[in-house]
Amino acid sequence: MTRLDGKVAIVTGAGRNIGEAICKLFAGEGAIVAVTDLDKSAADRVANEINASGGKAQGFACDVSKEDDIIRCTKDVIAAFGQIDVLINNAAISDNKTMFDLSLEQWNQTLAVTLTSPFLFTKHVAKAMIDKGTAGTIVNVTSTSGYFGRDRATAYTAAKGGVVNLTKSQAIQLAPHNIRVNAVVPNKIGSPVGRDEFDPTRPVLNLAGRPGVPEDLARAALYLANPESEFIVGASLFVDGGCSVLMPGNA
Description:
By secondary structure, the protein is of the alpha/beta class. It contains six helices and seven strands; from the N terminus they run E-H-E-H-E-H-E-H-E-H-E-H-E. Strand 2 (32-37), helix 2 (40-52) and strand 3 form a beta-alpha-beta unit. Helix 4 packs parallel to helix 5. The longest helix has 29 residues, at 104-132. It starts with 7 loop residues before the first strand and ends in a 12-residue tail after the last strand.
């Protein structure tokens, strides 16, 4: 038996990079995957590739910065597959700006996609899980940028830092309903946030000695999403090649 046999999983920001890798790995482990992305054509491409390889998936359009879209998407997935067992909150955007160059509009949009959407998607999916008595799992994708300051990406660091503690509060509130919430913490995995191109020669500083690839993060998400990790709740699993344990003097 595969590790997610028959489970229905929603993955946000799934039209490329980390989200795409998670969808394909989950489908290979027996999950029925709701490939969710702002770009419906990208979601459909990933779903079609999964279906062509013998898995089961369907593309769904969703603007995660809008609560109405999240509610509609949640209902559409339940209508299509009957339930939701797993939610991966992966969608994010970055500002890549200093506080002096960052407008309020850009700040609000970055927080809406990167921080508010894991709040809202978890809220509405958890309600559906509770209504159906589902023992669900939720994995939020945060970042090492949520733990350390940067000279740019001001809104992104604030948002990802928020996801770290949001994960803990969600875990506490949902544990009585038999829903586990955890997070994965990548660093420079695959292409930069919001970009399609992946440069394997991009310099990285870590203990693994190589850039991270989307499959690294997908395997961690799979572990937290299946019963092998049933005693792990409210945790943040670093998938950063050891980057975060290095002191600046070691650079």
